[in-house]
Fold this protein.
Amino acid sequence: MLSEIDVRNYALIDQLSLRFGNGFNVLTGETGAGKSLVIDCVGLVIGGRASSESVRAGCDSAIVEAVFDISGLPGVEALVADQGIDPEPDGTLIITREVSRRGRSRCRVNGRVVTLSTVASIGERLVDIYGQHEYQSLARPMRHLGLLDAFGGAELERVGASLRKLYEEWRQCEEELADLRANARERAQRADLLSFQANEIESARLEEDEDIRLAAELTILSNAESLHAAIARSYGLIYESSYPDVSSAHDMLGEALEELDDASHIDTSLASLGERMSELCDQAAQIARTLREYRDSIEFNPERLAEVEERLSAISALKRKYGDSLSDVIEHRRRAREELESMTGADKRIGELERISEELSEELGIRASEMSDMRHEIAARLEKEISRELRDLSMPHAIFKVDVRKKKDGAEILIGGTPTPVGPSGIDDVEFLFSANPGEEPRPLARIASGGEMSRVMLAIKSVLAVADDIPTMVFDEVDAGIGGEASIAVASKLAGIGRVRQVLAVTHLPQIAAVADNHFAVAKAEHGKRTEVTVAKLEADDRVTEIARMLAGEAPSSVSVAHAREMLSRPL
């Protein structure tokens, strides 16, 4: 419940602190006193629209802070915990909304900065506000199904949750099926292209780095004659000179070794040099043998040259199509085959989805029909209870009907062999019908001309749903619009009745309603230091008598209106 609200610098409010109590809380005051400002502040702090124009003139920002007691509200406690916010041990939750003149809005919950959407998600579980626009929204049939389902209670909610889950699974299945079917032609064209590409690459029988190896071989084949001549000359210079007057390197090293051997007989320290020279001779002979083998292996092979050139040309053509490198080409082939496999499975997937869709739609039809049957039963009960409430609200001839009919639009499933539109809420559309006078056929609420009738219909609905509703605080702004006399006494009784199961906060001009409140607050507007300010005071005893007497007299209270006010306050409901 809403325990307290503190307001600073909001519109005509300089500073205001109100402590609300359990049961029925009422706000009264002269026309234009600013009663609805308090309701606006409640709406703002639970995530309502903010405007920089609401900041009091001369101030930088407006601040509204509300204290809620969420103990005994496990759904709200869980929601708050999910947002990472810890309530106080006693269940206190403090929501703060600050609106700056520059248009910025800042929100805090228990001191932690949060987004506006977080505040709104928490606020909608704490407070329901019903103003004139809410009465208008009651005329919209789109709201009626939700109100009927709320009256259905836990059992209908269980079936509804199952229905929504089934519908979502079926919808996703149908969407995937539609995509697969719609793209069948594109898939076939894509499959032909991928198959051609994969086959073209596979027919080339590529090997990793093959192009690098072939390029090296091409260089050798193209320069075989020059390579052979150079290796032959190198071999001759090292081991076998073709010039009679020129010694080879191997011969010269051998002569040098003989001279060192002779010298080492004279100076034995030269023996190590002789050993190293012997190693040089061996290495020169080994290099010469390797060069001779390489020289003899060189082929002058025009056929192989043409073959290598042709292979490299084919590889270059593939790289131009499928990648900068041979690895890219090979990877393209792998991806093409992988995509082809997935496409090949599309037809199998279509068949599988068709089977799943048929099973889901059958189960969805069963659940939707079950829920529709329950709604018809619940509608009959709701009609009786709201009609009874309307009689209590001085509308003895009122007829309230709940028209539960098949949906006209939406995706279709077969129910009993008949194509039937279905949605996440089932196969039903619901509309409330109303007739205030005998002999008139019930008509849609949108065609009710009287604001008083609409406000009483809203109050009747909320009276019936108050027990089923889990929102702890209900706020009614101008619930007495267009009513008076006996109807005002009936409205007062209903508000007091709701107050026995929910906290109620209402703005009223009627003394009959104010007199039955558990807590009474008077709103006034006055000038202080050449500035207009709105103040709110909780009334007790004689002050409450005076305020109700003023409401009765429409002017300064008289002895008659005071006596009448005392009688009204002492009168039991």
The chain has a mean pLDDT of 87. The first strand starts at residue 2 and ends at 10. Residues 25 and 519 are 5 Å apart (CA to CA). Residues 1-139+468-539 form a domain with the Rossmann fold fold (CATH 3.40.50.300).
